[in-house]
Amino acid sequence: MFKEERRTSILNLLIKDHSVSVRKLAVLFNVSQETIRSDLCYFQKTGMLLRCYGGGIVNRQALSKLITENKIDISGTISTPANKDFRLHREGTKMSGKVCILGSFNIDVSATVPWLPQSGESILASQFGFYPGGKGANQALAANNAGTDVHFIFKVGKDQFSSFALNHIIQSGINSYCAYQTDDAPTGSALIYVSEQDGDNIIAIYPGANMMLTRHEINEQQGHISEANVLLMQLETNIDAIEEFVRLGKLANKTIILNPAPYTKNVSRLLPSIDILTPNETEASFLSGITILNIDDAQKAGNIILQSGVEKVIITLGAQGSLLCERHRTLFIPAWSAVVKDAAGAGDAFNGALAASLARKSDLVSAIQYASAFASLAVEQEGASSMPQHELVLHRMRTQSHDIINIK
């Protein structure tokens, strides 16, 4: 093995395990301990590694900064020739089932306000902050916390927010991801107002680098797509990348879930290839032309959407619950009771947990119940990226009972 290949492998181990041992690396690569010490000194000089007795520990802050500034010179791992994108790729397996997620990473700029402002209205916020977000990142975190192995594909810019993005993913517990980077757009961002009264929210999204994913980059992920049980995506990335993701998923006979948010007319190109569509009331209204005011309206909307070729439609109805529409049946699944603090991440929590439950081979109704309980816990926390742990969800399901209503 050449020196560059060995150092590439060592860096991947550092990213995956956060620390390395001189003795173990010498045995692994069949080289002297002095050779390994030389490699670790190289990483120490770049700032990526903090040396300690017998090995070294990754310096996460410095690593993210070097990645962002494209200063790491290890062929094939992170940095590529000038003016080309980089990718940070970490892999691993730790849980039951696998979900592959194509999606967005955004910086959420969030303000908590007494009520949602009207046009021309200025109001004082009681809280303000920057948070990791984006539907893709949120759903990946939800699926991870819900007890499944996740591979997350996303793209960021070369700006001050990209290191924030990578730090969040590294520290989130998501054990497999591929981050691409572009010079052509900044990292995506979202402006969020959250109402103190009921946790309701309004969100404006600037997708930025999320819209720069290429078909070639999606093709590079074919191995992860073929290994997954479930594919999950949203509409915060560019449609041609999503189409390629869906195409590869269909070829591999995977269960494909699309969360059609934020709504765009381009979604009609995808619908015939989607197994499960998960719109909220607003998105279902756009897709069907039906204004949804109650469960009857939701049923009508769901039946219209099924005519587009989608196999199953799950319309999420907020605090009411969700409606499963299939060709042979319609079921209403009530929501779990919750004390809402911030509803901004409710849909992402639901979708990530739904995908995780299906990846574990749960039946669809059980998966919806699990996702609903998961989302009920998520809205009790502040921040769209705040996701509960699997054990808490199981506890909530044990302590509350639900009657599923067969509408048709």
UniProtKB/TrEMBL annotation:
Annotated localization: Cytoplasm
Binding-site residues for ATP, renumbered to this chain: 280, 316-321, 347-348
Activity regulation (UniProt): Activated by a monovalent cation that binds near, but not in, the active site. The most likely occupant of the site in vivo is potassium. Ion binding induces a conformational change that may alter substrate affinity.
Single biological process term from Gene Ontology: D-ribose catabolic process
Enzyme class label: transferase
Residues in HTH deoR-type domain copies: 3-58
Cofactor section: Mg(2+)
Annotated positions binding K(+): 342, 344, 378, 381, 383
Family of this protein: Belongs to the carbohydrate kinase PfkB family. Ribokinase subfamily.
Name the record gives this protein: Ribokinase
Organism of origin: Citrobacter freundii
